[in-house]
Write a structure and sequence with these properties.
With about 170 residues, the protein is an alpha/beta fold. It has helices at about 15-20, 65-70, 95-105, 130-150, 165-170, and strands spanning about 25-30, 45, 50-55, 80-85, 110-115, 155-160. The protein has five helices and six strands; from the N terminus they run αβββαβαβαβα. The strands form two sheets. The chain has a four-stranded parallel beta sheet. The chain has a two-stranded antiparallel ribbon with strand order 2-3. Strand 2 and strand 3 (about 50-55) form a beta hairpin. Helix 3 (about 95-105) packs parallel to helix 4. The two termini are about 25 Å apart. GO terms for molecular function: dihydroorotate dehydrogenase (quinone) activity. Its EC number is 1.3.5.2.
């Protein structure tokens, strides 16, 4: 059992979470530049449905801050780093944001999660389908190959997709 991304968006508590005995720790989602996320309130409780709605919006201190915290951490277990695009980056330029983050986190990650599932980032979910997804994956795969050669290790990539996609949409 591991700790999924979202709780430690900036890598501030890697060592503390590692001490809790998780099988892996995933930090992020992190974007190239810092951003505040959505205006508060951004977490809503639905008591009748026994649910919580989260509209955080990738609030984080940016990839450079996260990398410095990863470098300072003592944890040497499985560390996933979840990457995303900035809110104000047009979806047509999203691949640039993902490549910036991948370049910076690759050497420090056991795996990298590419987050294309947030409904709070304009146009992001369109990257889950068709040519947009194909172009993103091709660019990331090519960069992964380059980074594997540069760093002497292959870091797996995972894609985080929306939980409400139909079976047909995931094929």
């Amino acid at each position: 059992v591991g700790l999924a991304a979202g709780l430690d968006k900036n890598g501030a508590a890697i060592d503390g979470f590692a001490q809790l005995g998780f099988g892996f720790v995933e930090i992020g989602t992190v974007t190239p530049r810092p951003q505040p996320g959505n205006p508060k309130p951004r977490i809503f409780r639905l008591p009748n449905a026994e649910a919580i709605i989260n509209r955080m919006g990738f609030n984080n201190l940016g990839v450079d801050n996260l990398v410095s915290r990863v470098e300072a951490a003592k944890y040497r277990g499985i560390l996933g780093i979840n990457i995303g695009k900035n809110f104000d980056t047009p979806v047509e330029r999203a691949v640039d944001d993902y490549l910036i983050c991948l370049d910076k986190v690759y050497a420090h990650a056991s795996y990298v999660t590419v987050n294309v599932s947030s409904p709070n980032t304009p146009g992001l979910r369109s990257l889950q389908f068709g040519d947009s997804l194909k172009q993103l994956l091709e660019a990331l795969s090519l960069r992964q190959q380059e980074l594997t050669q540069r760093h002497g290790k292959r870091v797996p990539l995972a894609i985080k997709i929306a939980p409400d996609m139909t079976d047909e949409e995931t094929v």
